[in-house]
Amino acid sequence: MILRGAPKSLIAGSVLLLGCLFPATMAWIWHGGHAPFIDIPNRYAPPSLAHPLGTDPFGRDLASYVLTGAFNTTAIALLSVVLATVIGTILGLVGANGGKRGWAVMSATDLGLAFPPILIAAMLVTAQGASATGEILAIVLFGIPAQIRITKQAAQSILVLDYISAARMAGFGSVAVTIRHVLPNIAPILIVHASTSLALAILSEAGLSYLGLGAPPPQPDLGRALASYQIHIFDHPFLVAVPGVTVMVLVLGFNLLGDGLRDLLERPFARNEERLP
Amino acid sequence: MTDLLSVRELSVLAGAKPILHPLSFTVSAGETVAVTGESGSGKSTLARALMRLLPDGFKTSGQIIFEGQDLAALPERDFRDLRGRRIAMVFQEPMTALNPIRRIGKQIGDTLKLHGALSSPDIATHVQQLLDRVGLSHAGVSAQSYPHALSGGQRQRVLLAMAIACKPALLIADEFTTALDSRTQAEVMDLVQELAVEHEMGILMISHDLGVIRRQAQRVLVLQQGHLVESNETEQLFDTPRHPYTRALLGMSLHGTNHPPLTRIPVPVDVSEGVQP
Amino acid sequence: MSVLLEARNIQYSVSGHTSSVFGSRRKTVLQDVSLHVAEQETLGIVGSSGSGKSTLSRILTGLAQPENGEILFQGKDLRDAAGQVRKDIRPKIQMIFQDPQGALDPRQTVRQIVKEPLHQMALSNEEKERRVLEVLADVALPQDGAERYPRMFSGGQRQRIAIARALVTRPSVIIADEAVSALDVSTQAVVLNLLLDLQERHGLSYIFVSHDLAVIRHISHRVAVLDEGRIVETGPTLSVLDHPQQSTTRDLIAASL
Predict the structure, then answer these.
(1) Would you call B38 and C211 a contact, using CB atoms and an 8 Å cutoff?
(2) Does residue A5 sit within a domain?
(3) pLDDT at B269
(4) Which residue of chain A comes nearest to B54, CA vs CA?
(5) Arithmetic mean of pLDDT, B39-53
(6) pLDDT tens digits, residue range A179-188?
(7) Chains that contact A by 3+ CB pairs under 8 Å?
(8) Which residue in B253, B262, B273 is closest to C156 by CB distance?
(9) C252/B273 Cβ within 8 A
(10) Over the stretch C136-152, which tens digit does the pLDDT of each residue have?
(11) What CATH superfamily classification does C3-17+26-101+172-256 receive?
(12) Can you give the pLDDT at residue C21?
């Protein structure tokens, strides 16, 4: 079996994520990406066969609403992380190769780190109104500097090795050396970082839409679900618990996945050094 | 002369695989004993077993009598107190042993703080004395320096200062000077010898370099694939080796015998690359 | 014997750590270094760390450019040589590195590693594959090792892979930077024997850079002593090492006895 020997955290993370994201995807497809129907007379309904988790203050099916929201939140987080990873990795590699361009990239990174992402999101909302695009932009801008730093550091630890010199002697230029030797060797670090960044991106997405800086209603979203249900924390605590736990499961799932991937990917190649002489 | 360290029937198992077969030896105060052998001989395992630094899955048995008490039977807490204070260890890799972002004076001071009850001004004076003693002050290195500003030899001197800070009775040096060039190597090893005489310190030196061993050690233990095959006074070992493996090792070493230049070195078939663990 | 590779008046410096408002002061690494190696000859370069010997080997292989001075291969200046000539000459100068861990990309197979230097050479793929197998046999590595990864080999075998990579372009001169320093006694003996065999078989020249006088003494015909970026003494190996004229050389000898 493939799972044998796989790190426990990898299995736990995958189970959590599958358990959450598979029904989320189903719900999203079922509702065509929209929020479930509003049915005011039927609000605050207790769990039943028709509504497994009951209904919310607008009479919407809570399970469907939260699952569709989980899908949207994850989709926005995933898109943001992919963008941040691609852009950050390219810039990080430019930075690692040094020279004037590298210096420019690293200086811009330092400057970028000085801007709080929440401020960027608030500015974007003021400029063009709340939208998913603005939210993605904020999360991407937040992720890029860290991605640049991690990529640069990892790449630099490879660039000093002798096989890089050997490749240069063979006539490969900086770009070819990067693609042939640097990227494959830093890929595990990048994959692990992407996975843990996803956990952070989910939190950021939920946080931004909680503050009303995300995609506008009626698009279901975990952050806004929390925001709109929070006034019921005492009379209907279940309403707040469901989206809250969903965020927690997603964050925990991606963190565990990252830990597991770290064990899985970085282990076989570290074994040489670990072996006692 | 009483034995400072007396190892009796020490063996190490990795799972069910024997890494070190039962072996016994002693180290007296002020004496330098070298342990040599090829990769996979178990020499580093021996050092780590003595310091209880073996990873999980390794099982040590036998007695390690140090200053009259059996270390193997000592609870972890008492052992931790002993390690660093009475028994110190220095490694090959100074960059991983030193914290890159702390000044070296602080790092040496930490060792003192951990084991002694010196007041802060006393620590500062003591650190300064240590830096003087290992010849760093002389080279313009101050307690305020960071590790990266030092050369390889200077970093080894910092490690040495940390190791001798509490005036240990036994110093275990695992391939301590291997990464240094011969001149720096000789300087650092000479310093170790001076300190040994000064503090009546026993030294257990792990090295594959027969040249260094011949210069520094009074006695030599030769390990082959986890077996102690020969233990002898240095002079006798080099002049009249008894075990065939010792003879083979000396025969292949450029330091052991005077080979005519530009000729093939005789390599017994059973030794050549058959030393893989 | 005719001169194969020659360095003339090499000058190299790096920008120092201490910079002032007047600009950073440059630290001289190599000063007026001249040396040569003849066909089928081994030149040993000895020096402590900080003597500039690693920089010198990088300059000789073209990995670094000297500020001043010239590198001549069979009398042709490598800087002046036009693109094609340079492309022809570069493969003739190869290098073996010190660290058997860092010298081989852990994610490439032995075949990919050994084939890499042929990248820019005008050879058919069949010819390249044939050469890879040829050099693997040359360094006595099993043929089925070609599809394996470096971590599956011992330290000595990894160094053989590195030697195979240097041989695959059929070079005239190989620069070895501390090539046997990190190895065990027996592995060191085996690799030194292999290098002597290869020299005989292919008529190779070596420039052997090391701090280890015992190694230099064993393998070099001539030796140059490098100290603080200058060559302080040079001559036939035994006459320099047995009758050193300079105090630096005497210190080095005393330290390695």
Answers:
(1) no
(2) no
(3) 66
(4) A276
(5) 89
(6) 999 999 999 9
(7) B, C
(8) B273
(9) no
(10) 999 998 878 899 999 88
(11) P-loop containing nucleotide triphosphate hydrolases (3.40.50.300)
(12) 53
For A170, the closest of C97, C99, C116 (CB atoms) is C116
A21 inside domain: no
- The pLDDT confidence band at residue B276, using thresholds 50, 70 and 90, is very low
Residue A267 has pLDDT above 70, yes or no: no
Contacts with B, A 215-274, CB within 8 Å: 274
Arithmetic mean of pLDDT over chain B: 86
Which residues of chain A lie closer than 8 angstroms to C118, CB-CB? 170
Quick one: pLDDT at residue C171?
96
Task: In whole angstroms, give the CA distance from residue B186 to residue B177.
Answer: 9
Number of independent structural domains in chain A = 1
How far apart are the C-alpha atoms of A186 and A269, rounded to whole Å?
Answer: 11
What mean pLDDT do residues C147-176 have?
92
Instruction: Read off the CATH number of the domain in which A113 is found.
Output: 1.10.3720.10
| B45–A contact, CB cutoff 8 A | yes
Residue in chain A nearest C166 by alpha carbon: A166
Partners of B208 on chain C (C-beta within 8 Å) are 184-185
**Domain range annotation of chain C:** 3-17+26-101+172-256
Is the residue at A22 inside a domain? no
Cβ–Cβ of C63/A269 closer than 8 Å?
no
Would you place residue B256 in the very low, low, confident or very high pLDDT band (cuts 50, 70, 90)?
A: low
pLDDT at A1 over 70: no
User: 251-270 in B: which are within 8 Å (CB) of C?
Assistant: 252-255, 259, 261-265, 267
- On chain B, the residues whose CB falls within 8 A of the CB of C251 are 183
Mark yes or no for CB contact C185/B208 under 8 Å.
Answer: yes
Query: What does the angle CA A136 – CA A138 – CA A140 come to, to the nearest 5 degrees?
Result: 65
pLDDT for residue A275 is more than 70: no
Q: Which domain holds residue A220?
A: 69-266
**Which residue, C207, C117, C73, C226, is CA-closest to A165?**
C117
A2: in domain: no
